[in-house]
Amino acid sequence: MEIYGIDHVELYVGDARQSAFYLGTAFGLQTHGHGGPDTGLRDQRSLLLREGEVQIVLTSGLVADHPATRYVQKHGDGVAVIGLEVDDAGAAYRILTERGAAPLSPPTTYMAGTDVTVVVAEVGGFGDVVHRLVERRGPRREFLPGVITIVEPTPRRPTRSCSARSTTWRSASRPASWAAPRSTTSGSSGSWRSSRSTSRWPGRAWTPRSCKARRSTSRSR
Predict the structure, then answer these.
(1) Could you tell me the domains of the chain?
(2) What's the whole-model pTM score?
(3) Closest-CA residue to 3 (of 130, 91, 104)
């Protein structure tokens, strides 16, 4: 048995679409596939997110007794399945169960034509986390043929982050006419206020209104 690495991670969440929106906004993950009752996934809805070689599956239960629903009620949103890519899923399943791992799902084969074959088996991991053994043959575009329908992700719009668009005004590049006038009366409250407002100029940062609106919207959520 040889383990090549992490194939994917599956999270059980209360709302797969909302979680996909958050992960896409925060980390750039894009939806590359979906599955549900219409594709053979009974009582659940799953979304496949990808970014480079990273693959994350978000699954929400559609009924009260689904494992994803029970997991979220007990733990909240979290990692429920760790997919391990192996050279032979059948042999790995047999070896692990012989060594004491709890057998959960025997090897099952999924195929797309004659080019793509995916063999999946599951054993108990730790706590409520499952270890999924994945053997892949052929092109990697397919994730789970016949169960997860692959879709083209929405093209990203070229945008810059708010931090990149923010501009800091420095006294060296600011025209002298911008400086607040200083009071000539030393020790007065007016002098203290004038010097205080002037001292703020060198480090004062300007943030575009679009960024402020975006931040206020994210806080309201």
Answers:
(1) 3-150 (3.10.180.10), 162-220 (no CATH)
(2) 0.70
(3) 91
